[in-house]
Amino acid sequence: QVQLVQSGADVKKPGASVKVSCKVSGYTLTELSMHWVRQAPGRGFEWMGGFHPEDGETIYAEQFQGRVTMTEDTFTDTAYMDLGSLTSEDTAVYYCAASPRSGYYKVPFDYWGQGTLVTVSS
Amino acid sequence: QSVLTQPPSVSGAPGQRVTISCTGSSSNIGASYDVHWYQQLPGTAPKLLISGDNIRPSGVPDRFSGSKSGTSASLAITGLQAEDEADYYCQSYDNSLSGSWVFGGGTKLTVL
What we know:
heterodimer, A: 122 residues, mainly beta, 7-stranded mixed beta sheet, 11 strands, globular, B: 112 residues, 9 strands, 0% helix
């Protein structure tokens, strides 16, 4: 049974950074392509970036480039998403989502973490 | 504003059939990228409902089906049940600019 377990809710001040973790079980991290998606209150989903297995690199959505870093610790099977220069517009639930399938442009996000609420407030 | 367009809400009585549309463009659905559908129950993470336009993952009832034509896709739910009340989202890949995964704005299904 695949599980993605994320870190708990966090509150940050404008201008700060936040780091969200996503612990994988049931698969090793190297068997998965990990993505990060966020959902602002009452809004839809926004893809932030993800791992491209064929290219072997992480692709970031244009609107987050320079402000987000996604890393992986294969020893602990934990993925991390670090988002900096936070503003109130970054208040959202952040999800890790993964697929064990090959390919990048066709595969769905089979498994999702439970979500981490990040609140940005002064 | 979402790249993929869905109706904000649909409703139906138990036992009825409802459809949810997802309209894209030539850089996503129309470029033959697969469409995936997710169900999100209140306060929970999304669950994969349909992949590859019309493939149900193991455990998803055959009441749920997907289709695609041109720049649009649809999710159909037959034999509507109370537990189907949820938000539904479509997803595809978009090759404009540097490329990205895109989602619809979501459709709230109400079972009357």
